[in-house]
Design brief:
By secondary structure, the chain is mostly helical.
């Protein structure tokens, strides 16, 4: 995938994961966590035999969102904050 595709995938995955986890990192933080999450999700998915991230399709977005949720949970644990009340 191209750099622009990774950024778009990171934006989508990061925003979805940030929304599902209650927010707290802002747009740029969501993009960065989403890109890192896409890499982590791709690693986890390939290790479990689900394949890897190969483009901007639904399967890749789901893998990236799961990875972004994992990264977001770890970042919150290291930062020592919880989700905001909605």
């Amino acid at each position: 995938m191209s750099l622009l595709a990774w950024i778009v995938l990171g934006l989508i995955a990061g925003v979805i994961a940030d929304y599902l986890m209650g927010g707290g990192f802002g747009l740029i933080g969501s993009i960065v966590l989403g890109i890192v999450g896409a890499v982590v999700g791709g690693f986890i998915a390939s290790a479990l035999g689900f394949g890897d991230i190969s483009g901007l399709d639904v399967r890749s977005i789901v893998i990236a969102v799961v990875g972004a949720i994992v990264v977001l949970a770890v970042a919150r644990a290291l930062r020592g904050t919880s989700a905001r009340a909605v």
